[in-house]
Here is the input.
Amino acid sequence: MSADTAPLTKIDSAISGLSSSPPDSKIKHRRASSSAAGVYNINDLESEGKELLIAKETQKLNWKLNTSPATLDDKEVLKKFLTTPPVKKIDLHFPLGLEVTARNMKGVTIKDALDAIHKQFKKKADDELELPVLAGFEWDKEESWTRLKVHQKKEGAPASSGGKKKKNKGGDEEE
Here is the structure.
C-alpha cells in the first residue's frame, strides 16, 4: 500500500447531493393477481346472471373418491375446465352436508375438483364409503348459485379396456 499524506474525506454516494427520503420516481403498484383472462369470480357470474355449464366428462370418469385422480386412465380429461365459463373457485356440496372448495386462479379444472374431493376421502377404506364412486356434478341455481352438488353411486361401470388392469408404481389397481 502506498502511504498518502492527503487527509481522508468521507464520500458516500447515498448522501452526496440527495435528500434523506428515497426518490418518488419508482412506480409503486401491487402485483396483479395470477388469475388468467376470461376466468370469473363465481359471485360476479351470479350478479350478472350468467349460467354455468358443467363438463359432461365428469359423469364418465367412474372415479373412486378415495383414490388419487392421477390413477385415472384419461389424463386429458383432468386438464379441462370443470365449468363454462371457468371460475376461480367453486364449492362442492355432498348430500350428507360435507362441503369442499376447489380453487384455481387460472380456472378450476376437473383435476382441481377431484383433488379437493380426494383430500377429504383419501384416508377412508372402500368399505367405509357407502357410495364410493363419483357419478357427476349438478348445478342448481335455485338452491345455490355458487356451489355444485356432488352425485355419487355404489359402483363404477365395468372398465371399457377389455378387463385388463395396469400396474402402477404405487401398486394401486385402476378401474
